[in-house]
Amino acid sequence: MSVVNEKGYDFGNICRHCDQETVQPIECIVSGTIPKWAEGSYVYNGPGITKIGKASYKHCFDSASIIQKVTVSASGSASYMSRFLRSQAYKRNMKAGTITVGEFGTAPHVPDSEKGFFSKLRKMTDMESVLSDNAVVSIVNIAGKHYALGETPFMQELDIATLETKGRKSLYKEGGLMTQTPHPVKDKAGNSYIVGQSVTLTGPKYSIIKFPVDGSSPQTIAKLPTRWRLSPCYMHSLGITENYIILVEMPLAVSVSEIMSDMFNNLAFIDGMKWHQESVFVHLFDLRTQKPVRKKFTASPMFLLHIANCYEDANGSVVMDFPCYADSTVLHEMYINKLREPKGAKNKEFCDRFITSITRLVLPLNDNDSRTEIGVKGLPLSTTASFENPLVNPVYHRRKHRYIYGMGVSPNGADKGQVTKLDVETGEVKMFMEDQLYIADPIFVPRPGAADEDDGVLAVVCVRSDVYKFGCLVFLDAKTMTEVARVTYQPQAVVPMPMHGLYIPNTLP
Ligand SMILES: [Fe+2]
């Protein structure tokens, strides 16, 4: 049992230490009725191990990945299991009994024998081992294979049945990437795309990588220049419409020289990132011509992690909806010590730093407009709810949507999370909350053949703030946001709060 935080939202729940897997599936308790069409596996990635030996990870994005899975079988029964991702970083760290591979906010432990100049120099010639392959962020399906992804250029292939790590693909080797967006987007044909930062002879570039739906090798389809010559901008996501890929260049600069220097000196990478209170640039890449669009769009400074959906409207403009922060402060608020510390009366103030507003950018693409730079204004669609991990019904990807779903802290900072449905046409908001229930990544499963956009279930994976060895997957009617079924599991191990998940129907491998 944990200490109940009666004063408010307990951010410690998002960075729990879990040092035990649940490799043998355990039976879950199922209440209510899970629709037949929502049976399958719900697989999640996120931070698990927060300390190794005497060393602790510093940032919420650093902890060693644990993959969790809830499987709902055709008989209606359900099971839960988990397994640590066997990355090379995990194996090296476990063997050494300490953190030997640097992460976003954590410096590696380096033995004295490797602190000399030449040792450091030798290390820098082997980026494959300097960059961590702890792919802790998401789980994705690319050309029928399932991968765990993080922000470094490695894709860890998973066996979804056993959750074993099958091996890694290196986009550093195959595409020269140093980073990648862990949220690929798919075009109508099923090809997947990510963007990453690569370093070329003429400086850093944004490389757009295409993963063909037929499973053939990834292709670099574009290398786009960065706004600052030696400082590309941080990107966690990219957008896609029917015809365009959308890159948002936020003013969070990643200094290549500082990052290299940090690596050389065994420091954490986050120190090489600097926020500049300058405009956001939005770039479009035309999938038909395979060329960047000449027009560039600018908007007031803002920060985003995820994009809910993008589409082309009746005027041919590109519309993009996303949760928006004023700046990148939130990244610096996610140090584990900071998240875990009791905040007392300041809890609500801390919660407010995680509040976003769903914002819309409309990018006009009128051929008669000869301007090459067009200023656009972010339109707030909701300021009454906190949204992260935004999503729409997947049938509406790249199409005009009406409803956006997302999770976040409770509206008044109380000891619970919430999941919200926003009607972007009326502004109406519907929420699901329960005391001590902390909601992670929502997943929308549409009812087959549904006519209404919100006809389906929203599967929300949850932990409780008062019981650590407990988790549940709650199925909500996506129309009413009321509970229709719940799968509850109580393993022998701590259940960490996942970051992102994927639904895999029983009909798929
Ligand atoms: Fe993410």
Automatic annotation (TrEMBL):
Name of this chain's protein: Carotenoid isomerooxygenase-like
Cofactors (names): Fe(2+)
Domain of life, source organism: Eukaryota
Entry keyword Transport: no
InterPro entries referenced in this protein's UniProt entry, alphabetically: Carotenoid_Oase
Protein family according to the UniProt entry: Belongs to the carotenoid oxygenase family.
Binding site for Fe cation: 183, 236, 306, 500
Gene Ontology biological process terms, A to Z: carotene catabolic process; retinal metabolic process
Entry keyword set: Iron, Metal-binding, Oxidoreductase
Keyword Disulfide bond attributed: no
